[in-house]
Design goal:
Order of helices and strands of chain A: HHHHHHHHHHHHHHHH
Strand content of chain A: under 5%
CATH topology of the domain at 35-228 and 344-489 in chain A: Cytochrome C Oxidase, Chain A
CATH architecture of the domain at 35-228 and 344-489 in chain A: Up-down Bundle
Number of strands of chain A: 0
Radius of gyration of chain A: 23 Å
Distance between the termini of chain B: 63 Å
Largest sheet of chain B: none
Structural class of chain B: mainly alpha
Largest sheet of chain A: none
Oligomer: heterotrimer
CATH class of the domain at 35-228 and 344-489 in chain A: Mainly Alpha
Distance between the termini of chain A: 24 Å
Number of domains of chain B: 1
Number of strands of chain B: 0
Largest interface: A-C, 82 and 74 residues
Shape of chain A: globular
Chains: A mainly alpha (about 500), B mainly alpha (about 70), C mainly alpha (about 200)
Strand content of chain B: under 5%
Structural class of chain A: mainly alpha
Number of helices of chain B: 2
Chain lengths: ~500, ~70, ~200
């Protein structure tokens, strides 16, 4: 906050220094972050195609059937892994790397090693996905990649963690912002999770219900300790940056982080409620799931109060639209999750399409939408080029937000009725199947809408990389120019737009 | 079975201690003071408080620097 | 003024506690149970399925049957699994000892299969159902597993393994549909699925 009594020249040189610093940081992150984002967009499209296939096959089972690699039981896990590890994780890594560099106010470390990590990650994706379609999938949810794929991800991830932590340890900014805590947590938790789960389940081949508890500890923690910190952390940074206002309550953000760390770990086994696991274990996970209300409500209050009074800005900022949608979805899906773990609710919803709706509310309406918003903010600052068409961005937003809401409503109702009927022994199973069909068909339509949005997003991304559209103006780019040192800065508004 | 209970309770205790330790450390190193400074650490003279930093491309408010010397 | 180590310590210990509680503890507990079981004379065998049925488990895994079918029975007062005749009692950890992978499942797009071997004892039914589920179960949305079968010209006598279709589904004259080894293995697995034996002792 500059004091108006300081002379204009001093203020101006201060401003230039910070602008230069930021330009240098963005430049250092350019190749690795764009590398991960490119990978993420490619797998978003692949995963969306697989999603549509899977969705249609559920209500029209003879659609494109014949060869073994197109059977629903292989397409469905291929979809999950391509969107979770191909799209979501790569987008998350890109956001993490850029955010950590920005918040530490220092250049991103080991960019070439990170490019190698991009290569490793995407090779892993390719061999893993082909493996699943070839019938080598493990049938262990979220860990379906056959044994030859995980080493690629483990190594790539080690590089990401090292780069992030070394960048952080060289920070110029003395204050550790809340986003940085979340990101450190994420890059520390996820490799541990991934390694432990793979070692035990795939390589050591733990058997019986031990495998199930490890499986769901891992799968849920991918949401809770990888995607959630990155999504929530990114929101904590970009919301105030876009609005120009600080977070409402910093103390609240502390509470939110540590309570998440404490409780989310335990929630994973709620996927196995009613199953063959000891009661104390399942009860513990229900307790953890309900206690999650604390960090969730904390974050909801914080984000809402920060945006309060500025909702009008949603008209003017693409990033804000996606992030606000995502943040609201986070609150909604988390509260739903806490409720779903209660035995009375779980008795109805377990084993139904309701759970699928919930999963997409979390992984898509929350995490994916925040990733979209973050990418819209970050990419122009890396390429120096503006997004080609605001109309396409709007189309992307409306098709995906409406799409996922329709998806959620259709499968929530469909799944709830499915669950109620499943619990009535006198309702024939085939009747239940028939009753779910209309909801499954609506979900396919919603999926087509979302896919259209993804195509628009991919087109915009490619156009930006190809420098189609307007060059980005503003201080960051200005100071990137090689002749910047010799230019005279005119200290008023019109000068800065050059 | 008993081993499981011991391990669980031990880990709960370990964790509780670490949270207390971490918070205590943070407080004694000034991390819990000056939340205003913490919350505004992401702003600087080039992107100060009050400046919006995102907009639709090609829109009239594309680059919206505040008028000289003023804050919203 | 370096919070890095603190954050690390906090994150590390949080994670360690959950890892211990949710991963190590059950593992230790269940592995102990496994060695206990092996010591008993009439204990369930370490790998209950051998030969063709064990191969069939891998066919089930490779084709993702777990994404529509569960293999777990919930307790009597929690859902209607038992009332639907899916099993005489809830399933417990002992029922899955030694299974790799264990495929408890989280979706019931199709019925639970924990005890399908006691409910459906006809191999012929399973083959028809897998070839095209709508033959045996009109309204079913299960995929067709035609790639597990071979449609071929009848040479000499019809194969004894050939599927017998109802008239409206029959293949064209002179042709027969025979199961591949994978299909035979899968059906053997389904026929062997039985978790209805009375418990020797109450589960944990």
């Amino acid at each position: 906050m500059s004091d108006q009594t300081i002379s204009t020249a001093q203020t101006e040189s201060q401003r230039q220094a910070f602008a230069r610093q930021r330009a240098a940081i963005d430049a250092s992150a350019r190749w690795p972050v764009l590398g991960f984002f490119t990978g993420s967009v490619v797998w978003l499209l692949v995963g969306t195609g697989l999603a549509l296939l899977a969705s249609i096959k559920l209500h029209s089972p003879e659609f494109l059937d014949g060869p073994s690699w197109l059977t629903f039981g292989r397409i469905r896990p291929a979809h999950l892994n391509t969107v979770a590890y191909g799209w979501a994780s790569q987008a998350g890594i890109g956001v993490t790397l850029w955010s950590m560099a920005r918040l530490s106010r220092t250049e991103l470390r080991y960019p070439r090693l990170l490019m190698f990590a991009v290569l490793l990650w995407n090779i892993g994706m390719l061999v893993g996905t082909i493996g699943i379609l070839a019938g080598e999938g493990t049938s262990i949810e979220w860990l379906e990649f056959p044994a030859f794929a995980p080493p690629f991800f483990a190594l790539a991830f080690a590089i990401v963690t090292v780069s992030t932590m070394v960048t952080f340890s060289n920070r110029r900014e003395p204050h550790v912002y809340v986003t940085q805590w979340y990101l450190i947590g994420a890059v520390f938790w996820f490799p541990w999770l991934y390694t432990a789960a793979n070692l035990l389940v795939i390589y050591a081949s733990v058997s019986g219900v031990s495998q199930a508890s490890i499986n769901w500890w891992y799968a849920h923690n991918v949401l809770g300790l990888w995607m959630t910190p990155i999504g929530v952390g990114s929101t904590y940074y970009l919301l105030p940056k876009v609005l120009g206002r600080p977070i409402y309550s910093y103390q609240l953000s502390l509470l939110g982080f540590w309570s998440l760390a404490l409780f989310y770990n335990w929630a994973g086994v709620h996927h196995l409620i009613g199953g063959p696991l000891p009661a104390w274990l399942i009860t513990l996970s229900i307790v953890g799931s309900v206690m999650m209300l604390i960090p969730v409500i904390t974050v909801a209050i914080n984000h809402h109060m920060t945006v309060l009074g500025s909702f009008r800005q949603l008209r003017y900022s693409p990033t804000l639209r996606f992030i606000v949608f995502g943040a609201m979805s986070y609150s909604a899906v988390s509260i739903q999750g806490s409720l779903q773990s209660l035995r009375t609710i779980n008795e109805v919803t377990h084993f139904t399409h309701y759970t699928v709706a919930h999963a997409h509310m979390g992984a898509y309406a929350f995490f994916t939408m925040i990733m979209f918003g973050s990418i819209y903010y970050i990419v122009p600052r890396l390429t120096g080029w503006e997004w080609a068409a605001g109309g396409l961005i709007s189309f992307h937003f409306w098709s995906t937000s409406v799409g996922v809401l329709v998806y959620f409503i259709a499968l929530t109702f469909g799944g709830w009725y499915q669950g109620l009927d499943l619990n009535r022994a006198d309702v024939p199973f085939m009747t239940i199947v028939r009753n779910t069909l209309p909801y499954l068909q609506v979900r396919s339509w919603a999926g087509i809408l979302m896919a259209a949005g993804h195509l628009a997003f991919a087109a915009l991304f490619v156009m930006n990389l190809l420098h189609i559209g307007k060059q980005r103006s503003g201080p960051t780019l200005f100071f990137d120019r090689p002749d910047a040192a010799t230019l005279t800065v005119i200290g008023d508004a019109s000068g800065r737009t050059v | 079975m008993t081993l499981a209970y011991i391990v669980i309770f031990a880990s709960f205790v370990l964790f509780a201690i670490s949270v207390v330790f971490a918070l205590g450390w943070a407080m004694s190193h000034g991390q819990m003071q000056n939340f205003q400074r913490g919350a505004t650490a992401i702003f600087d003279p080039d992107e100060p408080l009050g400046t919006r930093t995102d907009s639709f491309p090609g829109s009239a408010t594309h680059v919206e620097p505040p008028p000289e010397g003023s804050h919203e | 003024m370096n919070q890095g180590p603190t954050i690390f310590l906090g994150v590390f210990l949080t994670f360690a506690s959950a890892w211990l509680g949710l991963v190590v503890a059950p593992y230790v507990q269940f592995e102990a149970q496994r060695s206990q079981n092996a010591a008993k004379v009439d204990a369930p065998p370490e790998t209950p399925m051998e030969g063709l049925a064990a191969q069939g488990r891998q066919v089930y895994r490779a084709n993702g049957c777990v994404y529509c079918h569960s293999q777990q029975i919930r307790p009597e007062n929690f859902g209607s699994d038992i009332a639907r005749g899916w099993g005489p009692r809830r399933t417990v950890a002992q029922d899955y000892v030694g299974e790799r992978p264990v495929m408890l499942g989280t979706m019931r797009t199709g019925p639970d299969l924990a005890n399908i071997g006691t409910r459906q004892t006809s191999a012929a039914w399973h083959h028809l159902h897998l070839y095209n589920s709508r033959i045996t179960s009109p309204g079913s949305i299960m995929p067709r597993f035609t790639f597990l079968y071979e449609q071929r010209k009848v040479v000499g006598q019809r194969s004894s393994a050939a599927l017998t279709f109802p008239p409206e589904w029959d293949v064209k004259p002179g042709y027969e549909v025979v199961p591949t080894n994978e299909a035979k293995a899968l059906v053997a697995y389904l026929l062997a699925m039985d978790r209805s034996r009375p418990l020797e002792e109450p589960g944990p």
